[in-house]
Amino acid sequence: MAAWKVLQCSCKDLQLLITLSGGQCFRWHKNEDEWTGVFANRIWTLKQTDGEILYEVQHGQRSKLNSACTNDDTKKKRKVGRKKNESGDGKFSEEDEQLLCNYFRLNQSLDDLYDQWSKSDPNFKEVATKFYGVRMLQQEPVENIFSFICSSNNNISRISSMVEKLCTLYGPIIGTKNGHTYHAFPEIDALAEASVEQDLRKAGFGYRAKFIQKSAAMIQKLGGKSWLQSLQEKSYKEAKAALMELPGIGAKVADCICLMSLNHLEAIPVDTHVWQISCRYLPHLKSYKSVTEKVYNEIGDYFRNLYGPYAGWAHTVLFCADLKMFQEKEAKTGTKRKAGNTKEDKKAKNKLI
């Protein structure tokens, strides 16, 4: 087995546990102290120490870097805190490291953001002492869109299962690791085929099957990945409105996509859980029985005014801090306790998102 590659990065600057299992993405799995997941047509295995991220990479067929890893905000090389790898695999090694830095947005100083948010909000300042290192992933838009179409009235465990089914049914094989075969996420064209809806219904996707196929066909017609790239260049409101034209995408899912893969970091997805958090800041919201469009917009505007252009990232920290699976000492110790094995973990994983 190849030697672990090393990326200097403290737990304060990136905490894998909260970042990878807080509901942003659905293809990472933890086994003992290792995380295995897929992005950029590669199988990644990560381990964390107090001051380093150790990683192994298994490549699929070589392809162009996806837009999630090459937009203007993230394509800069990360220099601070970087340790040169000595594995001797040249360009691949350098490219892998840059992909990893971009995926976790390591070019963005988390200390600066936390300081800014703490000055604006005493509650955030208190939360930040335990829930440090929470990063907003920069994901590939196609995977992000269809993963969150699967999220409708669903829990994290079942969403993860559906996403893996999509990959197994329609994604090319990347390789095998520890006896498990890993697939890349499907291309838009594969999901746009007319037969996809019926196949996915048989696979247990229910009404989401229609939304997946219809949205893929619509994105294909609009221009595919080039259209998705154009959404990053539009304003947040324009990008959100465009996404909501796709079948199966309402305001919350559109905001998830804007925040997690289109670089509109002011987007704040609002669901019942976020509404409950918001009631601590806006007590009058308790008088509403549901999250109406008016309430939804009020919550988003309030936190955008409070936290600024990275409001969605700040609110993700609050969201994670409110999940039972991350409370007590787990956020502080990171890997002392296996995620998914306690009663609190199981309840959180079965929570609707």
From TrEMBL:
Compartments, record wording: Nucleus
Keyword annotations of the record: DNA damage, DNA repair, Glycosidase, Hydrolase, Lyase, Multifunctional enzyme, Nucleus
Main location: nucleus
Xref: InterPro entries: DNA_glycosylase, HhH-GPD_domain, HhH_base_excis_C, OGG_N, Oxidative_DNA_repair_enzyme
A GO MF term: 8-oxo-7,8-dihydroguanine DNA N-glycosylase activity
Region (Disordered): 66-91, 332-353
SMART domains: ENDO3c
GO cellular component, one term: nucleus
Protein name: N-glycosylase/DNA lyase
